[in-house]
Amino acid sequence: MEQPRRPGAAREGDPWGAGDDNPATSTGWPAVEYEEHEWVSSLDIPRRWQSTFSGPYRAAVVPKICRLDPVLPAATAALADEATAELARFDAEMGSEIAPFGAILLRSEAAASSRIENLTASAKAVALAELGDTSRSNATEIVANTTAMTAAIALADRLDAPAILAMHAALLEHHDPKIAGTWRSAQVWVGSSSYGPHTASFVPPHHTRVAPAIDDLVCFMHRDDLPVLSQAAIAHAQFETIHPFPDGNGRTGRAIVHCLLRGKRLTRQVTVPVSAGLLTDTDRYFDALTSYRAGDVEPIVEGFAEASFDSVVNGRQLVSDLRAIRAAWSEAITSRRQATVWRALDVVFQHPVLDNALVQGELDVSAMGADAAITELVEIGALQEITGGRRNRRYAATQVLAALDAFAERAGRRSP
Questions:
Q1: What is the pLDDT of residues 197-232, one digit of tens each?
Q2: What's the pLDDT at 178?
Q3: Residue 73 neighbours by CB under 8 Å, 6+ apart
Q4: Which of 58, 210, 256, 370 has its CA 20 to 30 A from that of 156?
């Protein structure tokens, strides 16, 4: 438990703390300041650690950024502009194929974002979790992250504090409902011991500062006079610095990036797997967040720009692999073009593990019609039955799952 002391950096009567006079660094962006709070642990601390985890600790005070204009080196600004154009080009390329590939790109981004938090699962495990299999906790959390990403895209036109809470609720409502969709009500810290924040690598703001800091961030995100990718990278870093939730900050923060990209109309049709680009060097990503807190915005903007290039390259390879798979299956189908099996192809790419009930629901067909489509897809090798029983049979598109696992492996490979 903690008892806040009067912030040393605050002006009398200023509820924000440091007010508008945060000192800017040489890069023109204000660094995080710190204030003292008294710490009283609710845990029984061993005697040898009592002196370390007692007394005052220092928590961050984030600067107001609503009206600030980031100043970037010319090379970094040019790189961000190139990456912006590449994201828009990739989004446009997907125009005619949004139905088969849009959902799979969204799922791939959710899986990559989860992997940054060390939540990993095979594409098959994730697909099974989407069908209700709860035996693999990592897979179910990745599915929840897909839900949060979907919620973010749906809320792109009204990105505000309630929208952020809705994304977090979608992420954690089934895994930790007590904290889902609510700002934290206690101090949190990054690293160190559970006994206290005194030796942590970073201590985010006191929980009483979260709501006003989020309001300022929302104000920054609503601006239309900033380059979109730079704005998204800085907004993400500010969100991670505020750390408004006890858990799920990273995944929610990366969902906000896609909300911004869609809301600003940079991406209109697909979720470009930017997190897959960040995965190529997660140490660099976390170091960029640290630099941001020191008042340097260049590394986080540069990191997001280069991650965008990497994600587009990886995304194009994934789509190319999926196109080849689909072309081979289409050539093997002998039914007339009006047959249900052709529409079922789209379902396979959106749900590479499926059952009869799922096909019925997706295509609004009878159980017999769904079974006929599944049977033909099994016959041409598109689906493989994986349950072995007569009832509740499930089928996997093994080639699609292999393409998704290959995408994940490329994303996790460190760039030379």
A1: 889 999 999 999 999 999 999 999 999 999 999 999
A2: 94
A3: 298
A4: 210
pTM of the model: 0.84
| Domain 74-317 CATH superfamily | Fido-like domain (1.10.3290.10)
Per-residue pLDDT of 240-295, as tens digits, reads 999 999 998 988 998 899 889 989 999 888 888 888 788 888 899 999 999 999 99
Find the range with the poorest average confidence among 101-105, 317-321, 336-340. 101-105
Q: Give Cα separations from 324 to 119, 317, 328, 329 (angstroms).
A: 29, 11, 6, 9
* Pairing of β 2-4 and β 55-61: unpaired
User: In this structure, what token pair is assigned to residue 202?
Assistant: 């970073």
> Which comes out higher in pLDDT, residue 259 or 131?
259
Q: What is d(CA 130, CA 123) in angstroms, rounded to the nearest whole number? A: 11
User: What are the sequence ranges of the domains in the chain?
Assistant: 2-61, 74-317, 333-405
Do residues 84 and 377 make contact, with C-beta atoms less than 8 angstroms apart? Answer: no
Instruction: Report how far residue 217's alpha carbon sits from residue 293's, in angstroms, rounded to the nearest whole number.
Output: 15
Its CATH architecture, for the domain 333-405, is: Orthogonal Bundle (1.10)
